[in-house]
Amino acid sequence: MKVELIAYTPTAAGVCCDAAAICTDSNNGYRSLQHSLASGHESVLEHAVFTFRVEGASRVTLAQLTRHRLASFSVQSQRYVKLDNPELVIPESIRSSAFASEAESSMRYMLNLYQRMVEAGIPAEDARYVTPQAVPTSLIVTMNARELRHFFSLRCCNRAQWEIRQLADEMLKLCRKAAPTLFENAGPGCVQGGCPEKKNLRASEIESRVGQVTVEIETSGWDETSSSYMEEMNVRYVIVFLIVAVLVLVVGMALAVIASDTDDWNKEFDDRDQEAYLRKWNEQRKKHKDHTCR
User: Fold this and answer.
1) Do 53 and 163 sit in the same domain of this protein?
2) How many CB atoms lie under 10 A from the CB of residue 111?
3) Which range of residues forms the domain containing residue 110?
4) 3-class secondary structure for 101-114?
5) If we measure between CA atoms, which residue out of 191, 125, 127, 116 comes closest to residue 153?
6) Catalytic site residue 272?
7) Residue 209 sits in the same domain as residue 282
8) Which CATH number belongs to the domain containing residue 6 in this structure?
9) Alpha-carbon distance 89 to 97, whole Å?
10) From 59, 149, 155, 176, the catalytic residue
């Protein structure tokens, strides 16, 4: 099987960073993208698309591949392209078994029957019904980055069939090379921390197939992705935190002083009111006493 990445969004990571940043009105696209992915909001990845050319995949793998609906497929037609002694895709489990010779001869017999039917005037689109699924085909497939990550999570898994797993591994290698920021942690669940099917499969086997990748951030002019920028940003955050803390402390002290002055002011007026009340009470008492004496 031959897999080639023939086209993709040139600034894939940059476009996705822009999409993530505009959602939150942020000026740090890379940080916004990482936050979006960590939160499961992967719609921002749909703005980057990747197109592959695949040659030599069996009709079995084609049937599995086209189940991924959020993709575009252009497949070699068996109506207009006649089969001419194609190289069959035979699993190793059959090649290494006692049925190898019998299986291949049976498939070759059906292909020979196909040829004789076409030569006899039966339309190729009808004669193809007798062809085995081991017949290879070629296709162009386009997916966005979000669907590709989903595709890799299922088809790079050790439980996926060997041929489509081989296809997914090759596609992931190409994607990691073209846009490492978007696919650095792409792959099945065991690579991301745990098998969703609880099968305890070995992530090391998958990493050995698709390889490790050192991520070099590729964005559309986002200087903030550099390590020096991130260090500078961390320093800025610390300074901002200290300034806010000092402001909170000053405001708190000012409020405490105001509250203290208010208490003194209220106490002063309470004392004055009490003196006035006592003075008025004594005057009333004196008048009552003078009236009683008369």
Assistant:
1) yes
2) 20
3) 90-131
4) HHHHHHHHHHHHHH
5) 191
6) no
7) no
8) 3.30.1360.170
9) 15
10) 155
pLDDT band at 287 (very low <50, low <70, confident <90, very high): low
Instruction: Tell whether 12 and 74 lie within a shared domain.
Output: yes
Phi, psi of 151 (to 5 degrees): -60, -45
- CA distances in angstroms from 121 to 109, 222, 228, listed in the order given: 19, 63, 72
Q: How many domains does the chain have?
A: 3
Please tell me the total number of residues recorded for the chain in this structure: 294
Q: What is the average pLDDT score of the chain?
A: 83
Nearest-CA neighbor of 140 among 77, 231, 223?
77
24 and 117 co-located in one domain: no
| Same domain for 284 and 192 | no
Q: Mind spelling out the 3-state secondary structure of 25-76?
A: CCCCHHHHHHHHHHCCCHHHHHHCEEEEEEEEEEHHHHHHHCCCCCCEEEEC
Would the pLDDT of 216 be above 50? no
Same domain? 68 vs 17: yes
Q: DSSP 3-state assignment of 140? A: strand
